[in-house]
Design brief:
By secondary structure, the protein is of the alpha+beta class. It folds into two domains: about 1-45; about 55-140, Immunoglobulin-like, CATH 2.60.40.2890. About 30% of the residues lie in helices and about 40% in strands. The protein has a four-stranded mixed sheet with strand order 4-1-7-8, with no helix packed on it. A four-stranded antiparallel sheet has the order 3-2-5-6, with no helix packed on it.
Amino acid sequence: MSIGAAVRLLRSGLQFSLQLYTISYMNKILFSLLLVSLVWLTGCEDDHDHHVPPAGQGSLIIDNHTDDLEVYIDGEYLDKVGDYSDRAFDLAPGTYRLTLTAQNSDRYFSGFMDVLNGRLTVVDVNVGVAYNEYNINIEFE
């Protein structure tokens, strides 16, 4: 075998090896994209998605993305919602004054919320821009 033939053989072997590596690398990328898309499609499941208000009532859901909150309805203490968790409070339909305060902080929120018969009023609580406020988003489900 001549040196030229050996070089051509070596070159074709390297090209074949490089093609296999490229296919293997592309398979890894495609598999990773498939895995990420499956996780994205399934989404995150909130506990409040499964909560059903009792007959004749609605539910106020506090979805807390901060430290511990103390929840007050019409000035009366209801309970605490732990940090980064959610909690449902079943109430008669109506309009309530909701107050949220943080333990060991000056951060607070106070506003009126509607509770609808058979529906969830979801109050999404995040840290606000100012040191003493929350960023609140309200949705009905």
